[in-house]
Give the backbone structure.
Amino acid sequence: MSEVILSVNELAVTFRGEGKKRLTAVDNVSFDLKRGGSLGIVGESGCGKSVTALSLMRLLPKPAGDIARGSIVLSDTEGNAVDLVKYPQKKLHKIRGKRVAMIFQDPSSSLNPVHKIGKQLMEVYKLHFPKMSYEQRHREAVDLLRRVDIPSPERRMLDFPHNLSGGMKQRVVIALALACKPEVLIADEPTTALDVTVQEQILSLIKGLQRETGMSLLLITHDVGVVAEMCDDVVVMYAGRVAEKGAIRDIIDNPQHPYTKGLLTSIPSLSSAPKARLSTIEGSVPSLYDMPQGCRFANRCDLAEQRCEQQPALGRLGDGRYVACHKVAHQVVREEAHGSS
Amino acid sequence: MFLSLTVRKKLKKFRSIRRGYYSLIILTSLFVLSLGLELFMNRRAVLVKYEGNYYFPTYGDVIPGTTFGLESEFETNYHELKELFKDHPENYVLMPIVPYDQYFTDLRDIRDEKGNKLYPPRPPNASTEHYLGTDTTGRDILARVAYAFRSSMIFALLLTLIIIVVGNSVGCLMGYIGGRFDILTQRLLEMASGIHVLLCAIFFATIFPPSLWSLLFLLGILSWMGYTADMRVLTFREKAKDYVTAARGLGAGHLRIMFKYIIPNSIVVIIMALPFQISSGISNLTALSYLGFGLPPPEANFGELLEQGQQRINELWILGSAVATLVAILVMTTFIGEALREAFDPKKHTVYE
C-alpha cells in the first residue's frame, strides 16, 4: 500500500507583488501522498499551506498567482500518471471534484446561499454523471447526507445553508466533496471555524469516511494535535519552505528542526501548572517582501549562527525523514554512500 | 410555501407599503385587461344575432356588410347595423362599452342643444359615447389613450427585457473575466454612453421607417450600457467568495458559476432596476412620438396626443386625458420601484439564525 498517489515535486508558487516583482509564496516544496494514506501539512498563518493546497487544485487566484516551477503528479491504479501543472485548463473539471476534491476552511461561506442543500448536492452528480436521472441523483444525495451523519436527511435536503449550524454546514461541504468518491481529499483547515466539540466530530467523521472509502487525505492545519490524531506523515512548513518532514511519530517524539521544536513546546498542556506562561516562538514570519537570503527561520531561532545566512539544504536523516537545518547537517545520510535503505 | 423565510419577509414588507402594492395591482390588472382591449373598445360589435345565427366579430376576419343584409361589400358598419336592427327585435347588435377603436373617425352629424353642427375635436359627451371627447380628426380619445397605454406597456416591457438580459450578461462577463477585457469594455461603454439616446434614435428614425420593432431594437441597442455597471461590481464581489471557489473545486465550469452562483446571488439589483426601466421606456417612446419620430401615425401614442393637445390648448380634454394617464402610469411604476427597493433593502431585515 505504499504506492504514491499524489507526488509534489519542487513546487514553487509566485504572486504578483507591487510593480513587476514576483513574490515567492511557496518555494521548492516536495512531498508524496501515499494511496490510502494521510499526510498533514502544518505551519503557522502565512507559511504557504493554503496556497499549496489551492495549487494542487489549480485554483490559485488568477492572474496574480502562478505556479512557477515544479510538478504535481496524480497517478491512478493502472500506473497512468498526469502532471496537474501541465494539465489543460479545459479538462481540469474532469479531475476537480471527481478525482481530487477539496474542503474549505469556512463552511459558512462554502455553500451557495441561494440554493437548497439538496439542489447543491444533486448538482455535483449532474456535473459529473450527466446521465443520472433525477430520482437517482436524489437518492444518492440523501444517502450522502446520511453517510455524513446528518439526521433526517430527506428534510435537510429542503433546507437552505442559512438554516444549518456551522458543524452541519461543514458536514454538507464534506458530503459535496465526497459525492463522486474522489481518490484524494484535500482538507484545508476543515475545523478551524468550528468549536472544539464539533471539531472532534468532524475529524472522526473524515477519518471514518477515509477508512470506509480508502481515499487519500491531505490535511492542512495549524494544529499539530489534529495532525497527530489524523495523519501518518507530516510536512512542517515555514515561510513557504519545508522545514521538516517525516512520519508523525518520529517528528513528535524527536523533532530536529528548531521550528518544529518550538511548535511542539508551544502546545498548551493540561498538566502544566495553572497560569503558567505559555511557551511561544518569539517574533513573526518574515514578510514576503523581504525574505532573508539564508535560513528563513534564522531571525527567530535561538541557535542561529554565522552559517545560517546560507540557505540550508533539505537533508535526509533516515527513512523518509528530511530536515532543513545546518545544525543537523552532520546527521545527514549520504544517499550515494548508503544507497536506498 | 416553498419560499424561504427571507423572501417571504420581503414580500410581506412589500405588501405593507400600500401605495406600491396597490400600484402594482392596479397597473398589472389594467395591463392584463388591456390585452383584451378589442373586447371593450372597438368599432366591431362583441356579439351580433342575425336571423337566428350568432356572430362574434371582435377577433378574426372582416365580416362584409352583405352577411347582415347591408348593401356594403366592405366591413360591416356595426353602428349602422344597430340603428337598422332597432325595428327588428329578433336581431340585435351588442356593442362594446366604447364603440370605437383607435382609428375610427366619427363623421356623424352631431349637433349641440342649439342645433349648431359640432366639428372635431368634440368635447366629452356621454350621449355620443365619446366619454373623453374626440381629437382633431374625430377619433375617440378614450380609445386612443387605452390603445396607447397598451402599446407603451408592451414596448416598455420588451425593452426592459432586452436591456436587462443584455446589460446584465455583459456586466457579468466583464466582472467575471476581468483584467484587460474589463478595462477595454469599460472604456468602449464610456465612449458609447456619450451618445445621446434620443438624438441617435431621431437620426436613425429619419433613415429607417419607425415601427414598434425597429424602435425597440434601436432603443435596446442604445440603452443597455447603463445597466452593466451594477452587475459588473456585484460579480467582482460574488466571484471572490469561497463558495465560488468551492464550486470550482467541485468541477463546475464558468457558465455554471455565472448562471447558478453569481447571477442568482445578485438578482436583487436586477429586480430593483425593473420598474424604473419600465417608466423610462414609456417616457422614451412618448418623447420620440412627441417629436414625430416614434410610432408612425395613425398609431395611438401619448406623445402624439400630447403634441395634439398642445396645439389645441383650448380643447383641454385632449391634453388633459393624455397628461393625466401618462402621469398616473409613471407615478405608479415609480411607487412600485420605491416599494421594491424598500422591501429588498437588506439592511431593513437582517435575520439572526
In short: The interface with chain A takes residues 4, 179, 241-243, 245-253, 256, 260-261, 264-265, 267, 351, 353 of chain B (CB under 8 Å). The two ends of chain B are 20 Å apart (CA to CA). The mean pLDDT of chain B is 85.
